[in-house]
Design a protein that fits this description.
Number of domains: 1
Largest sheet: 5 strands, mixed
Order of helices and strands: EEHEHHHHEEEHEEH
CATH topology: Lambda Exonuclease, Chain A
CATH architecture: Alpha-Beta Complex
Helix content: 40-55%
Shape: globular
Length: 260
């Protein structure tokens, strides 16, 4: 992964957390910047199977949409369809971002009227399940391990439980692919929130999946305490490995044998 795609945060003297995109590792060391959980997971683990499959599908579709021209050399054809597949995936990614923003900024209505059917399904789910909003797009850091991120939503559910919501968009066909990274991300947000707000225990962690292919009822995955506890152990190992490999310990080197 290119250094410029790494996502860092800085912890300011007043305790606020600020985004710091585009830092190289040297600049991050100088700024004692915290790495994001998504960057750690993406760089330590291989690309998830469902994402690889989707990327291959885009390339096949591009080949079908743009057959090889007579006299076109293989390398030129590869470059042409590869560029076309990237443009298709960029379009899909941009639409997914719009749906993600819709979920994050609810109850604000989307400026794009075409998104209203998705908005109505989100409203139905949200009003049925959420009692109170506690925070939206909160930047949160854990100084014990040098990681920071932006959690989508912190809420009180109708059954009065505290919960961290993480929104995902996916082109759902036969089923939802629950990524291996999802509980790891949530485990970080949940444990960081527990520390920051001095909760007696980690909040409930829930993925909320929005179908990007067509408006449809939302699909949720509430991870069990065991799932989150195990995911957090994996995540801490990955953070330690990333920090070691990049020689980047913004809060000082910590002991993996002692749960930070």
């Amino acid at each position: 992964m290119a250094k410029s795609s790494r996502h860092f945060y800085t912890l300011e003297p007043d305790g606020s957390v600020q985004e710091a995109y585009g830092l190289g590792i040297r600049e991050a060391r100088a700024a004692r910047a915290f790495i994001s959980p998504t960057t750690v997971i993406e760089e330590i683990r291989a690309t998830p199977f469902h994402l690889k499959r989707w990327q291959r599908q885009q390339l096949v579709i591009a080949c079908l949409d743009a057959p090889m021209s007579p006299g076109e050399v293989v390398e030129d054809y590869y470059n042409r369809v590869n560029d076309l597949s990237f443009r298709k995936s960029d379009t899909a990614t941009e639409f997914g971002k719009k749906l993600h923003d819709l979920a994050q900024h609810y109850p604000n209505r989307p400026s794009d009227i075409a998104l209203m059917p998705w908005y109505e399904y989100f409203k139905e789910w949200y009003d049925e399940n959420v009692q109170e909003d506690l925070g939206i797009e909160e930047r949160i850091a854990d100084p014990a391990i040098g990681v920071a991120g932006t959690l989508d939503r912190r809420v009180v559910l109708r059954d009065t439980r505290l919960a961290i919501l993480d929104f995902k968009t996916q082109g759902i066909k036969d089923r939802v692919y629950f990524g291996d990274s999802w509980p790891k991300q949530l485990s970080f947000y949940g444990n960081a929130a527990r520390k920051k707000f001095t909760y007696p225990e980690t909040p409930i962690c829930i993925n909320v999946v929005i179908d990007s292919t067509a408006p449809a009822p939302l699909i949720t995955k509430e991870w069990s305490k065991t799932d989150i506890d195990e995911a957090y152990k994996d995540f801490l190992c990955e953070v330690w490995l990333w920090s070691r490999d990049n020689t980047h310990w913004p809060c000082g080197k910590w002991n993996l044998n002692v749960n930070p």
